[in-house]
Amino acid sequence: MQSLFLLLPDFSLILVGVVLRRHLLGDERFWGGVEKLVYFVLFPALLFRALASLSIEPLSALPLVVAALGVLGAGFALGFAARRLMGLSAMGFASRLQCAYRFNTYIGMAVAGNLHGAAGMALMGGVCGAMVPFANIMAVGSMVRHGQGGMLRELVRNPLVIATLAGLAFNLSGFKLAAPVDAFLTRLGDAAIALGLLAVGAALRWGRSDGSMLGASWLVTVKLLLLPALAWALGRQLGVEGVAFDVLVLFAALPSASSAYILAMRLGGDGPGVAWLISATTLLGVPSLTLWIFLLRSAAG
User: Fold this and answer.
1) What is the pLDDT of residues 122-172, one digit of tens each?
2) Domains of the chain (ranges plus CATH)?
3) What Å distances lie between residue 158 and 14, 44, 118, 153, CA to CA?
4) CA-based, 20 to 30 A from 11: which of 3, 106, 159, 293?
């Protein structure tokens, strides 16, 4: 029950986002503006500050990064196994395949922060930021083969990639954030999580989903159950411990990212099908994340 209570504030914000869009703020242009504000300004500020202030030991961080990469690769491979089950065109399937391995960074930062405070948030930010380029390469690469768009262009203008690289470079340079700059970035970061979760709720869509329900169910199962179980095994095998281990498992258990829908629409893919899967993983993420947090706490004694 305590694990569920830990998630309630964050998923309550998602629910508020659903209610606001349906009953008070139904203008799609408003929510589009909120998403752009969070994606291009607030969240990069949060990510940069977290990484700029994080105590980084490259050798100790390497197993965590390797395990996270293994999770992404496994998600792609396990999701691809459902190709024949989906009954979709090549582009339709490539669009939905993203939902087997892409992750909602907003939820990840919020949950890790609630569980382990600033250390958890910084580590989750580092993992998510490091994995964004790889997730984008897999997603864009699989879709541009069947649609339109350029992989390099999508990567070099991604604000999370830019913030991650800038934050790591600043950290490794040995500089420290000046107090006014740190306070400024903190204010922006404080707004990022709340607005980001509201935007997640506003973006949820339930409608007709073409293709096999069995295939869609497999993608949801991969994302919420199989990947965190694999992350658990990989983390133990590679010696990931403490807060880093919890972050690894939670990272693997995160619902699919809202940006998967944006990318699918931008490249001419199956937007409605992707939106359905994002909504399903977000809704089912409440019980699944509750389960994984309970198991992590039980294992920690």
Assistant:
1) 889 889 888 887 887 888 777 765 445 555 665 667 787 788 788 888 988
2) 2-300 (1.20.1530.20)
3) 24, 10, 24, 9
4) 159
